[in-house]
Amino acid sequence: MEKRGSFGSRFGAVAAVGGSVIGLGNIWRFPYIAGENGGAVFILIYLSISFLISIPIMLSEFSIGRAARRNSMGAFTRLAPGTQWKWVGYAGILTAFIILSFYCVIGGWAFEFLKESILNQFQGKTPDQIEASFKGFVACGWRPIIWTVLFIIASTAIILAGVQQGIERYTKILMPILFILLLGMAINSLTLEGAQKGVAFLLKPDFSKVSGSTVLQALGQSFFSMSLGMGAMITYGSYLRKEEKMMKVGALVALSDITVAILSGLAIFPAVFSFGINPSSGPDLVFLTLPNIFSQMSGGHLLSIVFFFLLFIAAITSSISLLEVIVAYMTEELHITRKRAIAYTATAICITGSLCALSMIPDSILTIDGKSLFDLCDSLSSNIMMPLGALFIVLFAGWVLSPIRLRNEMTNHLQYGITIFPVIRFMIRFVIPVVILLLFLNQVGLFGRLP
Ligand code: TRP
């Protein structure tokens, strides 16, 4: 049995978990989903869900992972041997595959944009020219595939180095820089001509836009952004040291995650309105908007290089956490060497990722019911697999794991957090399962269709 790795310090743990949660979900997915769902109301719901629902789920995953010290599937077989709970673990591994398939495509886009920034290709272009060049890139087919594969290779190179040496070392330095840069960009965007419209879009709620599907999308976005509902945080929880205060790690990570999402909203939406881009452009939104921001900023060339480099790193640190779920399972349960597990997984993702990239070409045949394979993977994971995964995970933590074990993990044997623990446990046992179930049934029942 290979020795299990663990995070070396509090800061290292926060950086690694933060590296997983902060990624394309905050900078690419959050603005596009918020844009499609009308802005301010969506954001309000998203914030409430993140604090009340997502943080307790993250703590549940950490507790399961650290109590079992196993991968996300093995954790269930170890804590509840001989039961069907292992299927929650398997479903998580399948979800990791689905997410990685489209995530790597966007990671590839970030990579391409890094190249374009280095070559200074945004300067002096009008919003229309920028749009045409981006659409041409996506429609080309083979170019996005090459970048997708390069992105996968880069992720695997880091994950090969193992937990502490690989994941922790890189995230520690790079995440704080991303944060500062995004803050600067948000301030810059607020000074753009016509920025007020964007600010109003972000801050003025229009409650007539709320529907069951808005809330489910906000739930899915919050889970996606915090890497919940498929075992990534079980896996990372298993690398948390016994003396680590997981409530602190969870709170810190969640706060940073939410802040980065809001900052990127503040950077993107004023610019969206200022440059006349449609806020509901879908997955293209951020990639259509960002180059315009840089092309009008003083020092935009250099900043765009730094930004896309950091976006690329943020995407990599998230994608390695998804890979880690699969790789930890393969090494611990199937007894394959780490190297082989990584090679098999990377090859499979190269294939499914390329199919997702090809499905984005206009009139591609890789569509079902008018939705591209890419969109299907995106909404299937966030709107179905992760809410269901999270539901079973909280049921497990609240009703199957012994209360004393849950308490010992969350409070480090009653060392801290003693007053808040009963509240969290109540949420985990009653409130969260009911909310997820209702949202889910509402979506399936009322609309009678997949996302
Ligand atoms: N949270 C990451 C992001 O915001 C994506 C991610 C990494 C993820 N690991 C995950 C999403 C596990 C769901 C589950 O970009």
Task: Explain the overall architecture.
With 451 residues, this protein is mainly α. 77% of the residues lie in helices and 1% in strands. The chain has helices at 10-21, 24-36, 40-68, 72-79, 86-118, 127-140, 142-160, 163-190, 195-203, 212-225, 232-237, 246-274, 285-296, 300-333, 338-358, 373-400, 403-411, 420-447; strands at residues 367-368, 371-372. The longest helix has 34 residues, at 300-333. The site of tryptophan has 15 residues, from helix 1, helix 2, helix 10 and helix 14.
Q: How does the major sheet shape up? A: 2 strands, antiparallel
The fraction of residues in strands falls at under 5%
User: Helicity level, as a percent range?
Assistant: over 70%
Content-based structural category: mainly alpha
Query: What is the terminal-to-terminal distance?
Result: 42 Å
- N-to-C order of helices and strands: HHHHHHHHHHHHHHHEEHHH
Keywords:
451 residues; mainly alpha; two-stranded antiparallel sheet; 18 helices; binds tryptophan
Brief synopsis:
The chain is an all-alpha fold and 451 residues long.
